[in-house]
Amino acid sequence: MKKYPTIIFSLLFLASFFASGQIIQPSTSPNDIQKKMMERGYGMFITYGINTFNEIEWSDGSLPVESYNPTQLDCDQWIRVARDAGFRYILLTTKHHDGFCLWDSKYTDYDVASTPVKTDVVAEVAKACKKYGLEFAVYYSLWDRKEPSYKDEDKEKYVDYMCNQLTELLTNYGKVCEVWFDGGWNREVKDWNLERVYRLIKRLQPDCAVGVNHTIVLKEGSRKFALPDSMIVNDKYYFQYFPSDFRLWDPKIAHKADKKQYLHEGKSYYLPFEHTICISKLWNWYQKKDDRPVRDLDELEELFYWCTDNGNTLLVNLPPDQTGRIREYEANAIISLRERIGIEKNKPLPKNGKFLSLGAKVESSSHLENEKGSFDASLAVDGGMQTYWEATDTLAHLTVHLDENKPFNKIAIFERCVEKWDKDGFSNIRTNRIQEYTVSIMEDGQWKTIYMDNRSMGDCKVIRLPKSYRTSAIRLNITKATAPPAIYEFNVIDFK
């Protein structure tokens, strides 16, 4: 007899749960959770943990717990920097692939509570977010190289472990706006029982957005990932990790014409994209002992505009160092970005101007062709950040045809640099090819130079012109380069 009230309660709970609309449904427009995510738009990614103290990006759970030992841990400083930089939310790496937890978990001893500095980092970050008016989100690795149940033949035992830890994270630290899953590639999709995990999250945090890295695949049931740069056609690609509320592909950048409709079991779902980039020029996620260069302000500016456009969001990783603080020069760089582009609290994020060169007719002095394909001039104006034009000579030019009735006052050029892996195996070192160049416009049948520079172009060059120009053609003329130049995107912009 006592079972019936329980059953009735459960049925009523489930009815109200499904009626709430928090579970993603087929749609051609964003739901309330996705709208809130888009409104946030700009967040700070904090990658921090036992790897920070061992000069490594990924570890296997064997690092001694005692090696985690910050000398001046100051989570409040992290969030003050985020506030001053104009971020709207924080994404904290609570557990990476190594299994080390930044909170005192009942389900493992591989956590901060077992270290010399026992501070519950999750609690401190959540508290500081509330103090400074930022929303709080958690990164959690599905893959766990430490937990014994991960290797059990019964895959559900590890799912139990995950659900227990997620329950801790989602019940003990206040409101959580987002859960960002990583490491799904290490198992078959079915082994994660993501529907169970997703429903748990929605029960504990109904307004929480859930996403899994490498969300979309080329073919239903396959594990061949679809790159975000190719997602320019609605209903062409498929959910790999269903259910999810948004797409992830760390750290690739979406196409300018990013589409939002993706298929699962014959139904179409709306999914925005969340970008992740590093403040570091070397793309290291965990901080290293040596000071590392940050991205130039030009690159940060244009990536901000690009990544927050079209209903998508941007996370910038600022990793604390071995002292437990964000380095001053990195904090200054991201705060300078806020000042340059004018990010203001409780106001819509600033937007770039109108792109006049996107999809324009374009020509080049030469282009590379090899077994990988043809790297022709059109790829420099196609709106994709994984495609690029590459010349065959160090002296080269790129000519873009424009509507001479439309004015422009800004040019942004993303150079494809020569890259090599750093000693950690994850970071990369970028070396600029282009050393000297000019920009000219066609005027009265003649080329007129409006900008020249005898310095290295940099990863991204923003040229702000003191007045607006109109022309039928604009040319990038490369007069000195260390290798045949390559350009991801050449953007001519009417910036108002």
Integer tally of domains: 2
Mean pLDDT: 94
The CATH homologous superfamily of the largest domain corresponds to: Glycosidases
Separation of the first and last Cα atoms: 71 Å
Query: From the alpha-carbon coordinates, what is the Rg to the nearest angstrom?
Result: 24 Å
Q: What are the defining features of this structure?
A:
TIM Barrel; 20% helix; alpha/beta; 26 strands; eight-stranded parallel beta barrel; five-stranded antiparallel beta sheet; Jelly Rolls; globular; disordered N terminus
General description of the model:
With 496 residues, the chain is an alpha/beta fold. It folds into 2 domains: 25-341, Alpha-Beta Barrel (TIM Barrel); 354-494, Galactose-binding domain-like (Jelly Rolls). The protein has 8 helices and 26 strands. It has helices spanning 3-19, 32-40, 75-84, 121-132, 155-171, 194-204, 297-307, 328-341, and strands at 42-46, 89-95, 135-141, 178-182, 209-213, 216-217, 238-239, 246-248, 261-264, 267-270, 273-278, 313-317, 354-355, 362-364, 368-370, 373-375, 389-390, 396-401, 408-415, 418-421, 428-431, 434-443, 446-453, 460-469, 473-481, 486-494. It has an 8-stranded parallel beta barrel. Strands 13, 17, 19, 24 and 26 form a 5-stranded antiparallel β-sheet that branches. β3 (135-141), α5 (155-171) and β4 (178-182) form a beta-alpha-beta unit. The longest helix is centred in the first third of the chain and has 17 residues, at 3-19. The protein is globular, with a radius of gyration of 24 Å. Residues 1-21 have low confidence and may be disordered.
